[in-house]
Amino acid sequence: AQSVTQPDIHITVSEGASLELRCNYSYGATPYLFWYVQSPGQGLQLLLKYFSGDTLVQGIKGFEAEFKRSQSSFNLRKPSVHWSDAAEYFCAVASRESNYQLIWGAGTKLIIKP
Amino acid sequence: EADIYQTPRYLVIGTGKKITLECSQTMGHDKMYWYQQDPGMELHLIHYSYGVNSTEKGDLSSESTVSRIRTEHFPLTLESARPSHTSQYLCASSDLTPGRGSETQYFGPGTRLLVL
Question: Which of A9, A32, A44 is facing B101, going by the closest CB pair?
Fold first, then answer.
């Protein structure tokens, strides 16, 4: 079955430190890949997406993600986090196998230490 | 960026009541979606629509119903609310681009529903 795994339920990092949030998927064909962020009490905002081309994609708020086909991964990174980055981050994947419907990971809650 | 509006933002209601959650978008998007999200959990698709007069059930079984009479409006109705319906409901829309495959979804702020 198609699935998206975000192995870390929470991650705590210090303000100014680097961040990497993991996302793995199980699909045969090249999927479409997304990262969304959800601040408390809010809807989801698109951070970045990968459809094709350069496997390193830049997003908003200083985030980037790298698609690694060999590892079936699409990890989200930021070189230096800010307190305002505290939120929940969701990875989502769509492919022909899912009829292009988004399949969501369970999310990773990012906690920022002052 | 799409403008998507959901009302109410918060709703506390008694068991057995009929409720309608409103969702409107001003971007002229063809596809619209309803997701259910419990705290700390992934989103589950409960309904979607390809356009006017089109409605489909999602992966998660739901006792709710939807309608799509106008492009911009996609309300979700629960005929008789139960405590098990307590959750957050998120509406989204996307532009259906033929041959493009997946589209980017844009989300509203959500409705938090508490059924007593």
Answer: A32
